[in-house]
Design a protein that fits this description.
InterPro entries: R2K_3
Strand order of the largest sheet: 11-10-9-12-13
Shape: globular
Radius of gyration: 19 Å
Order of helices and strands: EHEHEHEHHEHHEEEEEEHEEH
Oligomer: single chain
Organism: Rosistilla carotiformis
CATH class of the largest domain: Alpha Beta
Distance between the termini: 12 Å
CATH superfamily of the largest domain: ATP-grasp fold, B domain
Strand content: 25-35%
Pfam families: R2K_3
Protein name: ATP-grasp domain-containing protein
CATH topology of the largest domain: D-amino Acid Aminotransferase, Chain A, domain 1
Number of domains: 3
Amino acid sequence: MPDVTWVLEPDIFPETHEPIRNAIRDRGHRLIDWSDSWWSDGVPSRVPKSSVVFHGSLGNAARITNELHWTPGSFCPVESFRCSSWYESARQWLVHVEWTVCAASELVANARTIADQLGATDRLFVRPDSPLKPFSGRVVDIATLTLAKLDHGFYYEDDSIPVVAAPIQQIGHEWRFLVVNRAVITGSAYDPHTRKPVIVPLDSTAAAFASTVASALPQPDIVYVLDICESNGQLRLLELNPFGGADLYACDADAIINSVSAIAAAA
């Protein structure tokens, strides 16, 4: 395999990156630390534009895709990861049975009407449509919903940003899987006793469900992260996230580097 350059953002996901850094070195790939000064000073010449992979903050991952055009880069095509881009095609597996996408301001102005249309009562689950997540997903009270309760004015100013509203679902265990070219490569979950991340066996029921989804769902990118959960006694698809800005927790570092580097070398 040709040499691949991995660019990791220091101080982002430090526990995850330690074994990843070791795996990069063990396989003889190049490892370079990202610096935000590159946005103003320019990317150093030692960083190639091809066969290069970035992993770090979601904001930098998106900006690298838009501005640096590295190949393959950060695997962060924002539009492809919008909920509105993939929810409908994932309906049969998705944790949400009903949902709507509308502007944040519209949701606040018409919360009661929207809740009634969705079959909700006094509360809704709300999250950003964007994978860049200008605010975190949360449960809100319909009667007292304001833009401020969606962090407007704190992390974003545009009250027309699209948001997803859906009836509340009870969520149990959660799993995160790395998907490469439609195949589940490795996965991570939290140990229910220690609350520490642990690797998920690929012969587990959760991994089998993730594989079913990944093999059939139109892929937002050739490399991405797929989250599933337990809900109402079933395994359901929770969300998709861009690889370049997603914490990989206890996912197998060797599997990550081998599979993603192969994609980068062939890009």
